[in-house]
Amino acid sequence: MAARYDRGLDVSHRREMQHHRRQLAEARQIISTMQSLAFIEVRRLRRVLEIQQQVVRGIFDIAADFLSFHAQLIPEPQPLQNLFLVIGSERGFCGNFNEVLIQELERCLAAATGEHTGVVACGRKLCERLTGHPRLLAPLDGAAVLDEVDGALSRLIARVTDLDVTSGSMALTAIYCDPQQENPQVRQLLPPFEVLRDAERKFAFAPQLNLQPQQLLLELADQYLFAALHEILYVSLTAENLRRMQHLEGAVRHLDNNLETLQHRENQLRQEEIIEEIEVILLSMNSASLAPAGK
User: Fold this and answer.
1) Average pLDDT of every residue of the chain
2) Which of 18, 84, 196, 201 has its CA 20 to 30 A from that of 59?
């Protein structure tokens, strides 16, 4: 009777393990699918990112040529209000992606000068971690996939315009992750062409203009800001998906190890059940052979 009770417990335990293993296998399939989607997204982003980077470089080269003859148009350095734009993740499963951005933001805030300093955060998961931050001016939804970048950019441009950063009274600095760099990047977007104050002349004659130099500089600054923000969103989304791939790869390996352990344990239990069944059969056969013939 006790042997049957023990076998019942073993069978019940093995069935629980089978159910748990099926659940882990389903979770592994879902995570593996998410990893594949992140890989596809990185491939898509890299195609458009290269083009966008060429656009940004082209605008910057034009500005360098122009300002090498009109450096006096660049405003003199002055104490500015600071606005930090932090580009984080819209979704999760990307490790400490947002945490390192927040750490870099705190370092920038500690070193910032000027009368006022504010933060605009882009990315739902990042905004959740910055809830209640004393410097947070605007939390914005980011882009989860390539097709949502334009919408995120429109929301970002609208919010930045509301804060009047293009008036020249505020410095705009972007903080974001670049997959080619180990640490978060800190990039000044406005004033846009401060580094071109001493730009070297590459041509003998000044460019012919159809606009007044001051107006051309303002329009170049607008175009540069739009193109650079577009580039940063692409770069950040690429870094996010690469981090997600790495994070999910670790999860898949962990699940594979658990599945292998469960399968091994399940096989052991099944072998023990078979041995016990054989022992019961042998005992039954021995009892039958030892029984008196008359009975």
Assistant:
1) 86
2) 84
